[in-house]
Specification:
The complex is a heterodimer of chains A (about 120) and B (about 190). Chain A is globular and about 30 Å long. Chain A contains 5 helices and 6 strands. In chain A, helix 3 packs parallel to helix 4. In chain A, strand 4, helix 4 and strand 5 form a beta-alpha-beta unit. Chain A has one domain: Rossmann fold (3-Layer(aba) Sandwich). The longest helix of chain A is centred in the first third of the chain and has 13 residues. In chain A, strands 2-1-3-4-5 form a 5-stranded parallel sheet, with helices on both faces. Chain A is of the alpha/beta class and about 120 residues long. Chain B is an alpha/beta fold. Chain B has 7 helices and 8 strands, in the order αβαβαββαβααβαββ. Chain B is globular, with a radius of gyration of 17 Å. Classes of the chains: A alpha/beta (about 120), B alpha/beta (about 190). At the A-B interface, helix 1, helix 4, strand 5, strand 6 and helix 5 of A face helix 2, helix 3 and strand 8 of B.
């Protein structure tokens, strides 16, 4: 299963990739912002993408909307380092399937993957 | 007028959080206490906030109470907690503060919460601080007492523990009647 991790922090992306590999996923791509994420999505068509809601430039909510325009069946999991209820609502309204709090961990990540992978 | 004030003061404010519409990621069983060995206590706080901001498979909400070394305002901001009671473990006097040396009040606060809420969850963060202010065995007795109440109820206790602070024997004593959770975490 292909997975895309979108976060402007390289350190966070690396640890996410490590957790995903430990969970048994190996086809993982990364993007640091809106444009790169759209390009990678078009090229790889990941089954699930994890998107930090706070990105430089256009936000994770904008990215979620854009990805769903490209592919209405895309599965976007919103991420943020705080639980901001209005931001989570915006993300879900934009079409995100679920939310993960950063820092994340094996338990929460496995739960989300089990719920949203086909 | 005074009767009205009396009635108002008796009205209980709801401590339920609004559901976020996201999935429940942690299956912490009712009547169980969990030790999470980690530093900082990020899995514990994530599990706590996820439990009280989501509904279970039957659509039931869980109410929570946190007792923590971190300032309640910071906890509320990070985890989006609006209604959940949060007590600060600190030596300062004031409302919502529990002194680390007052183990009686600490025990009473947790036992009362368990007795009053059938489907609750308590996060006790700051065990190291409690042990630095008290004898380890006294703190262990508090945990055991609360654990006894939790095991006879539909509630749960989450206890983050920094394993670097405790001797293996102390960890074994803490964990003997509790479930242990360990997981790798990704820092944000």
């Amino acid at each position: 299963m292909r997975i895309l991790v979108v976060d402007d922090s390289e350190a966070f992306r690396k640890v996410m990739v490590e957790l995903l590999v430990r969970a048994g996923f190996h086809e993982i791509s990364e993007a640091s912002g809106f444009d790169e994420a759209v390009d990678v999505y078009r090229k790889n068509r990941p089954a699930i993408m994890f998107v930090d809601m706070v990105l430089p430039g256009r936000s994770g909510v904008d990215l979620t909307k854009e990805i769903l325009k490209i592919d209405p069946s895309a599965k976007v999991i919103a991420m943020s380092s705080i639980i901001n209820k209005s931001m989570i609502k915006q993300s879900l309204d934009a079409g995100a399937k679920d939310f993960l709090l950063k820092p994340t961990n094996e338990i929460a990540l496995s739960s989300v993957l089990a719920m949203w992978s086909d | 007028m005074s009767l009205l004030l009396f009635r108002k003061s008796r009205q209980k404010r709801s401590i339920k959080e609004s559901a976020l519409g996201i999935s429940r990621k942690y299956s912490l069983l009712a009547g169980k206490s969990y030790v999470i060995e980690e530093t900082p206590p990020s899995i514990s706080f994530d599990a706590f906030s996820n439990l009280i901001s989501t509904v279970d498979e039957k659509g039931n909400k869980t109410v929570g109470m946190a007792i923590t070394r971190q300032h309640p305002d910071l906890v509320r901001e990070k985890y989006g907690l609006e209604n959940t009671p949060i007590f600060w473990l600190a030596t300062r006097a004031g409302e919502g503060v529990i002194s680390p040396t007052n183990l009686g009040i600490l025990t009473h606060t947790m036992v009362k919460f368990v007795e009053e809420h059938e489907n609750g969850v308590i996060l006790l963060d700051g065990l190291e601080y409690l042990v630095s202010n008290n004898d380890f065995n006294k703190v262990l007795r508090v945990i055991d007492q609360v654990n006894d109440h939790v095991s006879q109820s539909g509630s749960r206790l989450i206890l983050p523990v920094d394993p670097r602070v405790f001797e293996p024997r102390e960890l074994a004593l803490l964990e003997r009647n509790m479930e242990k959770i360990s997981a790798a975490a990704a820092a944000g």
